[in-house]
Design goal:
- The protein is an alpha+beta fold and 316 residues long.
- The protein folds into 2 domains: 21-132, 3-Layer(aba) Sandwich (Rossmann fold); 141-310, Tumour Suppressor Smad4 (Sandwich).
- It is 29% helix and 32% strand.
- Strands 5, 6, 7, 8, 9, 10, 11, 12, 13, 14 and 15 form an 11-stranded antiparallel β-sheet that branches.
Length: 316
C-alpha cells in the first residue's frame, strides 16, 4: 500500500477530517458500535453514530447522505460490507457534486471484506486509533454498467469487487448468514451452488477477447471477498487496474476449491483465468446474478467495468 495523501496541518492534530460519523448495521449496534464510541471518547473524541435499519446499502447511503449534508467529512462503516458499500456510493456522489476532501473509515468487526484488504483491525479499541491522525490511502473505485430488469442501463460504483454467478450468490447470501457462524456459511455456499450455473461468455479486456464457459467471475479491486476468502491475492487497490478472475466450467469447481480460496492458494490453476485490466466487458448467453461489494443488484450482464483511479480516500 503506497498511495497516501499528506495534509499541511498541525503535527498533533487528531482529526484532519473532523469528528468521525459512525454508521453501523444492527449487529454492530449489539456489539462493536458502543465499544468503538467508548474508545474514541478515551482519546477525547465524541463521535455521532447511527444504525442502518435494515442492514442494507440503501439504508446506509441515506444515513450517509444526511450526515454529509450536516457537514460530516469522515464517514465510518461499522460492520458488514453493505454498510461500506452504501457509504462508498454516498461519498462518490459527493465527489461528483464537487464536494471533495471527505474520507471513509472502515471497522469491519470481522464481517467486512473491504477492511481486510487494508489490514485494518476488527477490534474496536485498536480500530479507533486508525480513525485519528492524517493517514489516508488513495484507493481506486470500480465503475460498473449493466442492464437492469427493465432493459434500461444502470450504473454503480464499488470499492471491493463486482461479481457474477456463483461468487455473487455466495457474497450476497453471506451478508444474511453472518450470525449463524460456520453453519450459516455452509448453508449460504450450498444454496448458492444450487442457484448457480455455468454459461458461455465473451470476456473482453484491455488487450484480448476470450470465449469459454463461465462458472463465476470476480472483478477485484480488493483481495478479499465471499466472506473474507482471499480470492484475488494479487489485487492492488491503487494500481489503476482490476484483477479479473474468471472460473471456467461449472460452479462446483469453485465450491470444491473453497479451502484454497480462503487462503489464497488457488492460483495458478488451469480452470482459473487471471487478468489485469483497466476495462472489463462481459456478455453471457444466460442471465447471471450480479453483486457489487457483496450487495446483489437488480439485473445483470451485459456488464462493463472501468476504473476511477484514486477516487476514494480511505482512513488508515
Amino acid at each position: 500500500m503506497t498511495s497516501t495523501e499528506r495534509h499541511d496541518r498541525r503535527p498533533g492534530e487528531l482529526l484532519p477530517y473532523g469528528t468521525p460519523y459512525l454508521i453501523g448495521d444492527p449487529a454492530a449496534a449489539r456489539h462493536g458500535l458502543t465499544e468503538l464510541r467508548r474508545a474514541l471518547a478515551h482519546a477525547g473524541v465524541v463521535a455521532e453514530a447511527a444504525v442502518a435499519r435494515p442492514a442494507s446499502a440503501s439504508a446506509a447511503r441515506r444515513l450517509a447522505e444526511r450526515a454529509l449534508n450536516g457537514g460530516a467529512r469522515l464517514l465510518v462503516a461499522v460492520g458488514a460490507d453493505p454498510i461500506a458499500h452504501g457509504l462508498v456510493e454516498a461519498l462518490h456522489a459527493a465527489d461528483a457534486a464537487h464536494e471533495p476532501d471527505r474520507a471513509l473509515g472502515l471497522v469491519g468487526l470481522g464481517r467486512q471484506d473491504l477492511a481486510a484488504t487494508f489490514g485494518l483491525p476488527d477490534d474496536p479499541e485498536r480500530a479507533a486509533s486508525h480513525l485519528l491522525g492524517v493517514g489516508v490511502f488513495l484507493a481506486d473505485l470500480g465503475r460498473a454498467r449493466w442492464q437492469g430488469p427493465d432493459s434500461v442501463q444502470r450504473s454503480g460504483v464499488f470499492a471491493n469487487s463486482a461479481e457474477l454467478g456463483y461468487p455473487a450468490e455466495v457474497s450476497s447470501r453471506l451478508q444474511r448468514a453472518t450470525r449463524a457462524g460456520r453453519a450459516g456459511r455452509l448453508a449460504a455456499s450450498v444454496t448458492a451452488l444450487a442457484r448457480s450455473h455455468g454459461t458461455p461468455v465473451r470476456l473482453t479486456l484491455d488487450h484480448t477477447t476470450v470465449e469459454f464457459r463461465l462458472a463465476g467471475l470476480v472483478v477485484a479491486n480488493g483481495q478479499f471477498t465471499m466472506g473474507r476468502m482471499k480470492v484475488a491475492p494479487r489485487a492492488l487497490p491503487d494500481d489503476g487496474r482490476m484483477n479479473v478472475l474468471a472460473f471456467e466450467g461449472q460452479p462446483l469447481t469453485i465450491y470444491a476449491r473453497s479451502r484454497e480460496l480462503y487462503y489464497g492458494t488457488h492460483l495458478p490453476h488451469p480452470q482459473i483465468r487471471e487478468y489485469q485490466s483497466k476495462l472489463v466487458e462481459v456478455a453471457t448467453a444466460e442471465p447471471l446474478t450480479l453483486a457489487l461489494d457483496g450487495c446483489r443488484v437488480p439485473g445483470g450482464p451485459p456488464l462493463a467495468v472501468d476504473v476511477l483511479p484514486k477516487a476514494l480516500r480511505i482512513k488508515i
